[in-house]
Amino acid sequence: MEQKKILEAINLLIGLVGKERVKFDQTSMIIYAKDIFIPGYVDLRLGQTPRTLLPAAVCFPQSTEEVAKIVSRLRKNNIPLVAYGAGSGVLAAAAPVHGEVILDLKRMNKVRSINRVNHTCEAEAGIIGQDLERELNKAGFTLGHFPSSIYCSTLGGWLSTRSAGQLSAKYGKVEDMVIALEGVLADGSVFRTRATPRAATGPDLDQVLVGAEGTLGIITAALLSISPLPAAQIYRGFGFDNVDGGLEAMRVLIQKELVPALLRLYDPLDTRFNAKKLSGPETGCLLVAGYEGANKELTELKARLGFKLLQDKGGKDLGEEPGKQWLTHRYSVSYNQSKILAEPANLLDTIEVSVNWRDAAELSRKVMAGISRVGLVMAHFSHGWRDGVCIYFSFLVKEPGENQEKLIEKHAQAWDAAMDACLEMGASISHHHGIGIHRAKWLKKELGAGHQILNKIKNEIDPQSIFNPGKLGLGERKE
Amino acid sequence: MNSWMAAAQYLPVSAEFLREIAGIVGEEHLSQDPVQLVSYSRDVWPRETIEMQAGKLPCPPQLVVWPGSVQEVQKLVLLASKKNFPIIPLGAASGVCGGTVALSGGITIDLKRMDRILNLDKKSMLAEVEVGAIGEILERKLNREGFTFGHFPSSMYCSALGGWIATRSAGQLSSKYGKIEDMVVSLEVVLPDGQILKTRTVPRSATGPSLNQIFIGSEGTLGIITSAALRLWEYPKAREFQGFMFPDLRQGLEAIRLMMQAELKPAVIRLYDPVDTYFSSKGTLEEKPKPKKPGLSSRRGLIHFARQVLPYLYHPALPNRLLQSRAKSSKMILVFEGEPEIAALEHKLANAICLKAGGVDLGEWPARNWWKHRYRVSYTMSQAFDLGFFVDTIEVATVWDNVENLYHSMQAAISRHALVMAHFSHAYPQGCSIYFSIAAAAKTLEERLRLYDAMWKDALDACMKSGAALSHHHGIGILKAKWMEMEQGGASPLLKAIKRAIDPQNIMNPGKLGL
Question: Does B495 touch chain A (CB under 8 A)?
């Protein structure tokens, strides 16, 4: 964006919300220029922040009406904008690529209401996950959404990327928790969809906006389903000889209606890596299963039947300790990465994909083989569903000479191997991290005619492409 | 509304056009026979039945075509789109909102020849099924493999998978198995431009807006769904039944809410309002161990009653007031199924909640009896029309703290026009649906239509005013199109954008969903 337009944007924003809620200093612009998309670290290592990636300004609206006002005004001047939560996305979905104005929604962080009769809560999009969960806990409820980023991600970010928490087997992904949405369309109009558990009133517009990564509308608040705090939490570890045995046990457990809250199987490398932390075995595969629920008796029955089934399927009972340890360390993973990334010879990343049970083991093998050619890779299987599972790969690429270009190249090769294997096998390229910029090229292949549909919808609802242009591979900016 | 004669204004069907269509599907799979066109001119929308009684035909299509494969559907769509011909996809036409009526003429594409199970992945518990499959037949095929689909609308014998998906159908066991939108994993859709969209058969993904949830509920306005991958369940090993009588409606509703929020998953939860309870059990707390004569499920009871009190139907306010003030107790039926130990414990926990809420244990008989007759209701409606009155159903949904308000305000709105009763089913932790059954009468056809329209207007105005959803599982069609804009709470530009993006020529089922 040219300097003249940047100044125009800054003045507009100051006029709308006042000086104290608009930032345009260099430091802030650099901070907001990236999320946790891994290759972004390489730029920082090299001391680079490409000028084109800096936002024009950052603005902090505090109400839906204010967001609407800003959108109308920016649209009139054809200035694009990015709705921004906590910037902890890993695919550059919230990174400015056209010098956008950043709309940081973290001031919109209120829990508007907790409804004990309906088991719903209405919260604003900018609230940090843990703050929302804490408010709910005080009232005797839980959202049941526990991504490992819970301390550094917002409700709006979750909704925009179809986030999943660690206990998704019981509570669902965030898209399963949405009852209604409030937000702003590109024409500056405000919408509030109907608060109803289900409806038969045409396409589900909530499910069009959820996952749209800010390209079709800005979600400013949501009405969510909540659950009573569990009356019982029963967690336990099991050892399996190999991945195939563990996967089979997971599948049968879920399909038998013995759905736990937590169900996670670590492959041999991940098992060894976690052995100390989780008091698990050094060899074979660790599986952690946890039952929880509002009714103690029902939870205990399911746990008893579930644990018995896991043993029948060849699991060795490792007692409660791995479960307890898992609960203790459940969020630590997000904050250990930086140590490894601080080493300029390393690049670490994660890839989560979604696949049906029939193909899960084979896809896992294919991806592991592909990534192994350029780096070290391990996997865990989590977020189990009746029909399939998420495979979560963690990989490390190294360049002892610290050549950053070569690191980026290896990183790209690992991604290519994983994404190509998914596309080839009919799996999905993302289970819960989303698309952003990084996955856009594969998204086109995954969705086929569906991507053209999304592009046409984008052009109809936001013809100037002022909402997060380019993300999901949607929208073309005409300056 | 268009009539038979208006067909003359439609785009002409040329001999060449017919030859081209015959080339795609074969001579024997297309028809312009007037008898066919008449039978395809309507679905089960009661307003059409009222019109038919007066010899007025609703909207016949110009042509009916029965394709046998997705490739044939694709060719038909390409041809129609080239000529700008409207297309109406149709399953079993048992919809009740006019969703498959050929409002602007065009080609009705009947998909019933496409009824195969294309693939059964037992490991992932997924079946890929063509949309023309009739519910009961599909379920029976899956049962033979040891599975159930879990979708049991009362129209089970006369509705197709495609219709279910297009209208966001719900089955009677939805509290356990979910609505159809929860059961569909992926779709194959022929788009208006002839492209074929295939979504991925994966449990969940984070790949942008849900394309499935755009086409589910689209009522044929965005494309023709040709097949779907569906989640299956193991055929239940155990099934338990339970009935309760509550001294009043509020206690019964409270019991449902507490059961759903205690994470119990009864397959069936149905609570009949006092009027419905009165008809089905004559208002007593004692259920006889043997079925009484008719009147054991809502609409059968209503018809039985209405027949006796037909004169009163002309002045429904009076009998409504009488019934609503006299009848107090509410009957509930529960069914649990699945893994034996879990079903048994859920049953026990549910009983404790119901007793605590003031329910009187009726044993298992009321639920067993309901189970036996659970599909009968769909086939009794026509009797009412023969007797000179009309019946209809209105299903809406809302969150728990609005359920009573919604019930009373819609009941009051309908009571002016029709005899009304309701049941509460399809429960969720956050709310439930209310299903009103109505019966009304008027002397002349014009009066009947006027009464019909006034009743719906007042009922849905009251629904909108209370903030509830216009429909829980019947869909919109033509009947509720007027209220769609209000329903969407400012998000209607998005739906309109979706329609323009996918079907810019507006050839797909024009006029439905208010599009």
Answer: yes
Residues of B in contact with A118 (CB under 8 A): 399-401, 430-431
**Cβ A162–B206 below 8 Å, yes or no?**
yes
Pick the CATH number of B242-465 from 1.20.120.1730, 3.40.50.2000, 3.30.830.10, 3.40.462.40: 3.40.462.40
Q: Is B218 touching A (CB cutoff 8 A)? A: yes
Residue B425 CB contacts under 8 Å (≥ 6 apart), including other chains = B172, B174, B268, B269, B270, B271, B432, B433, B435
Q: What angle do CA B294, B298, B304 make, to 5 degrees?
A: 40
Classified by CATH at the fold level, domain B4-112 comes out as 3.30.43
Q: Which two tokens stand for residue A161?
A: 């990327």
Chain A: give the shortest CA distance to residue B211, in Å. 7
Question: Looking at this predicted complex, what is its ipTM?
Answer: 0.97
For the entire predicted model, the pTM comes to 0.96
Put simply, the answer to whether A117 touches B400 (Cβ < 8 Å) is yes
Q: How confident is the model at residue B288 (pLDDT cuts 50, 70, 90)?
A: very low
**Whether pLDDT at B287 is above 50:** no
Nearest C-alpha of chain A: how many angstroms from B225?
14
CB contact under 8 A, A203 and B471: no
Q: Which of A195, A356, A461 sits opposite B124 (nearest CB)?
A: A356
Residues 6+ apart with CB under 8 A from B446: none
Nearest to A195 among B168, B206, B467 (CB): B467
| Per-domain residue ranges of chain B | 4-112, 117-234, 242-465
Residues of chain A with pLDDT under 50: none
Would you identify the CATH topology of the domain A232-329? Alpha-Beta Plaits (3.30.70)
Q: Which of A377, A116, A202, A358 is nearest to B480 (CA)?
A: A202
Separation between Cα atoms, residue A81 and residue A100, nearest integer Å: 5
